[in-house]
């Protein structure tokens, strides 16, 4: 089932792209993946959010958690959203927003298999200064804008502590 999209709630594309330019890591280690993943788990527990959380770097899963209420479907959504980040080097929500800004949808115009790729909110690139996009952090289980916001809120907190 495709998550519902509410255009009236969508932040402007320029704001989303600025967010992506701002949320850049000086480095990203295994320990950083653990700390970021634990921060997301803590946020999700506080909100009683039924999500699954995933962090990948260079093709390796460094963190995964499935909270109460999440399902195997969330893992499938994570994989599909993560593939969008890997292919486009941009947040899955932003990729979908770019297609919508052109008056179309990712599903109609990307020519990619919808069972393999999903340009829905929740997967954000791990962009390292001087290296570029090396991985992704993904949340699945909430409406797509809420998934996106949970990830970006965690990234803001994490990067502000570094």
Shape: globular
- The helix tally amounts to 6
Distance between the termini: 38 Å
Poorly predicted residue ranges = 1-5
Level of helix content? 40-55%
- The helix-strand sequence is HEHEEHHHEEH
Give the class from helix and strand content and strand pairing.
alpha+beta
The CATH H-level superfamily is: Haem-degrading domain
Q: Tell me the name of the CATH class.
A: Alpha Beta
Number of domains: 1
- Assembly form of the protein: single chain
If you consult CATH, what is the topology?
Beta-Lactamase
**Number of DSSP strands?**
5
Strand composition percent:
15-25%
pLDDT averaged over residues: 94
Strand order of the largest sheet: 1-4-5-2-3
What is the level-2 CATH architecture name?
2-Layer Sandwich
Can you summarize the main beta sheet? Answer: 5 strands, mixed
Specify Rg, calculated over alpha carbons. Answer: 14 Å
């Amino acid at each position: 089932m495709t998550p519902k999209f509410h255009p009236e709630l969508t932040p402007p594309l320029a704001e989303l792209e600025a967010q992506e330019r701002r949320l850049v890591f000086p480095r990203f280690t295994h320990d950083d993946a653990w700390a970021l993943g634990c921060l997301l788990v803590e946020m999700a527990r506080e909100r009683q959010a039924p999500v699954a959380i995933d962090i990948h770097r260079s093709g390796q899963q460094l963190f995964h958690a499935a909270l109460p209420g999440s399902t195997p479907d969330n893992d499938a959504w994570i994989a599909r959203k993560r593939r969008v980040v890997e292919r486009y080097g941009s947040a899955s929500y932003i990729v979908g927003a770019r297609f919508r800004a052109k008056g179309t949808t990712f599903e109609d115009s990307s020519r990619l298999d919808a069972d393999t790729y999903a340009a829905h909110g929740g997967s954000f690139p791990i962009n390292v200064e001087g290296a570029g996009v090396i991985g992704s952090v993904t949340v699945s289980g909430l409406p797509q804008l809420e998934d996106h916001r949970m990830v970006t809120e965690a990234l803001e907190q994490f990067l502000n502590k570094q």
